[in-house]
Structures are given as C-alpha cells and as structure tokens.
User: What shape does this take?
Amino acid sequence: MNKTDLLFYLGVFLFCSGLLMVFTKKNAIMILMGIELMLNAANLNLVAFNQSTPGLDGQLFALFIIIVAVCEAAVGIAILLKAYRFYQTVVPDQFRDLHEKL
Amino acid sequence: MGLNNQLDSIYESLGYVWPELILTFSILVVLTTGLIFKEKSHVTFVLSGIALAVALIPVLITWPQQPVSLFSNMLRVDDFAAFFKVLFLIGGLLTLTITGKKKEAAEFHLLILAVVLGACLLVMSMNFVMVLLALELISLSSYLLVGFSFDRKSAEGSLKYFLFGTVATAVMIYGLSLLYGLAGTLDFSSSPFIDSLMRTQSPLLLVSCLLILAGFLFKMAAVPLHLWAPDVYEAAPTAVVAFLSVVPKLAGMAVLIKLVLSFYLFGQSVYLWPEMIAAVSIASILVGNLSALVQTNPKRMLAYSSVAQSGFMLVGLTTLQLEGIHFAIFYGAIFLLMNFLVFAVLTYYEKHGDINSVNSLSGLGRLSWFPAFSMLIGMVALTGLPPTAGFTAKLLIFSSLWSSYQETHSMILIALFLVGLLNTVVSLFFYLKIPYFLFIKEAPVGVTIKSSGFSNLLHLVLVIALIYLFLQPDLLMGWINRITFVL
Assistant: This one.
C-alpha cells in the first residue's frame, strides 16, 4: 500500500467519524467538532492527491478550506451564543419553538 | 508566465467584473456609514439600493456578452452569468423595498449585499475553489440574516440553518476533494477534466458527484435536503424569507446546471443523470405539495411550496438539452416575480398584525381589495394557471419534458410528467386557501387596514409583469435564447 492510499483511508476514517459525531452527538459544540473533522478529511485528501498531479491546486484549495472553516466556526459560535441567551442550553434537541404543528 | 504578465492579466480581468467591484465597494461603504449613522436606518437603505441599481448598469450595457475567461480561468463572464446576475440584483432591490424599519439596519443591508455578491460570483465560477468561496459567502451571510428578528424563534431557526448548512457544505467539500483526486484538476470546464472523467468509470466518481450535488440541492431546498426550509422560513423575518427563497435557490440552480452538464459529458456518461434528476424532482414536487396541504402558518406553507417549486425548476434540467435548460431559466425568472409578489403582500399584512396563521388574514381582502387581489394573482401564478406567466413557465417546461420523453421513452420521465400535472391540482387547494380567507371569511370586528400607496405600486408593477409575460413570453425568452453553453 503506498502513501497516497494510506492517507486516503485515513481521510475516509476521519470523514466517517465526523459524520457519525454529527448524527449522534447532542451538544451543538460537538456537532461543530464533527464538521471540523469532515473538513480535515477533505484537506488530507487534497494534499495527498496533489502529490500525483502537477501544480499546487490541491494544496492551495486545502488552505482555502482552512480559512472557510475558521469563518464558519466564528459565525457558528456567534449564532450559538445568541441561541444560548434565549434557551440557556446548547443542545439543539431542546429548542422546541419550531416544529410541525399538526 | 512571469509575474508581470500575471499582474497584467489580473488587471485586464478587473475590467469585466464591474458589478462585483461595485458591490464589494458598497459593502465597505455601508459598513462604515452604518457605524457613523447608527440611528438613521434610511442612510444605508438608500446607499445599498443605489449600489444594487448601479451594479445593474454594467451588466445591461455589456449585453450580449461574449464569453471571456477571467483571473486565469477562475471566473467566466457570459450571457448565462449575466442573465442570472440581473435576476439576483433585481431580487436584492425587491428585498430592500419590502423590508420595513429594522433594528441593526446597516448590518442587514450589508448582509443582503454580501449574498448578492456571492450569488453573482457563484454563477461566474469555473473552478471548484471559486465555487466553494462564493457558496460560503452566500451561506454564512444567510445564516446570519435568518436571525434578524432577534427573538427566540429566529435564534433557533438561525442555529438550525447553520447546522444543516455546514454539514451539507462539509459533505460537498469532501466530494470535491474526491473528485480532485479522480480528475486531477479543479477547473470543471477544462478539457483535462472532461477527458479524465471519460476515462474514469469507478463508482467513486458517482459517489463524489452525488456528494457535490448535495451541497447545491441543499441551497435549492430540494428533497431530500429540504428539512431546514420550513423551520427557517417560519423563523426568519418575512423579507429575508422572500430573499432566501429566491436568490440562493436560483444561484444553486445555476451551478447545478453547469455541474450536471459537465458530469453528463455530452451524453457519454455511464450514469443515468437525467433519471437521477427526475427522481429528485418527483420527490420534491410530491413532498412539497403534500406537506403544504396541512399547513396553517402561511410562511411554513410557502416553505413547502418553495420545495415543490424547486422540483418544477429541476424538470427543465431533466432533459439535459439546451431548450429544456432555457425553459428552466425562464421558470426561475418567473418564480422570482411571483414569489416576491406573494411575500410583498405578506409583509404588507404583517405591518397590521401577526400572520402566524391563515385565520389572522380573515376578511382583510374585504377591507382593502388591491393587496388581496395581488395575492390572488401571485397564488394563481404559483399554481400555474392562466392568465399569469406562471402558466407559461409550467407549460414550457412540461412541453420540453414531453419532447424529451418522445426521444428516450424513459418511464421515469412520464412518471414525472404525470406527477407534475396531478400536483398542479393538489397545489390549487393550499395556494387558494389564503385568497379564500382574505375574500370569503368575515373580518373580526375592529380590524382596520391602512392602504399604502408605495406598496400598492410595488404590487401593481409585479402583477403587471406577471400578466404581461403571459401575453408576451417572447420578451424574456428572446433574452434567454441567446444563452449557450460552451464547456
């Protein structure tokens, strides 16, 4: 098994554990961490695949993804703080003002 | 290529992106004036209105636009992008006009401008890096816009939108990274990209394409990624709902068209793209219309209606032929008009009391007939009945679907055709519920309604546009027919 394959499988593992965290964790902060794992899986892929392709596209894309992730976290935590002020919790399951009224 | 040449080419490219430069500059201006004139919300309102109107000018005077690649093939200006830019800028202007007095007005106007800027960049993107950055500009601004009622509900809606949205984006980014590994390039219009997709036929390719499309289906609120729509639409300020149900949706559709065309490889792809899109479209139409039937909150109902409308827009894309895509774009333009008409009337009623249930609209049409009449026209257009352009748009996309069926004899296309036609009947029940309450029910005693000349004028313009385009669809189709796709 060469190095690219190894990194690819590591990426798959990271992505799946991130997705699993998103689906199973109750706390919004933990969901955000799961999302970060998924983004890092993509970064690993990009850097690994860049070794076999000309140019630096993949690595530059990875840099942009890091920036995007930072912006997302900043906006997300601002929204979370706002919600915390109203509900005194960061567990999305306990936010019950919006749902189907049948 | 030397550094000097690169700088020269960047400098040349700047001459083609005037609308974006104007929007970027005005975002900075709105930010600073917002800090100076904290209490006067009309200053930033006027500034951002002027910015959107001025940004329309360079798009319109360069029409028809020869395709030009900019910034070393990151962006491309062409008629396709120009047409969508006109729609986004008009959408932004209409949103500003239907927004009443707002808290934190400067930030609100700034975020609207940012979403429009992101949408304009997104339709020009030719590279996945640019697609991602433009999409994130739209997403991050719209997460914040949802929270602009500053109450419990909108905080919850904003958080839900954020969580769903970031997961969809993360999944899309992972798909992009896989596709980069398979194709070896991020430029999805280039011939190396197409060539390597032709050679690769691994299932991983299908997985990565589907992961990428998930991100855009989320923006369009198409099934199965529509779950956020009802909660967000209920929580967000009505003007923001009008904006979010049109601008990001059309931007998502535009990129979806480009990407699916390039994944389809001019019909050489082994995967059944038309069938897959038809399946999404059938599911969106069914889920949207059937869930809308049982809603009592007008905003929730319109959320499900917008899910169904995404399904109808995708019908045009199912054919994967130029004509069908032209009709889908036409549908998108008409959708902008009819959706804004309905939401403009809703914001007008919202000024007189809350609109959390259809009951609270009872009898308002008897007190002042014109807004209610505009609402009726808007709803008739969304249903797809004459004498409105909504009928023309539905007729065109279904005629292109029928001709595509005659060529391929694919079962799923005829299923889509039948589902679409039957759902027009289903949708009649919930679309006409609001006009029914407005006109037939008695108003509670003591309710009064002030007529406003400005909003009546706005309703009148949109009603006339919808009826005029029913009589003269060629006016708009003439523009759309110039759009070609050279990949």
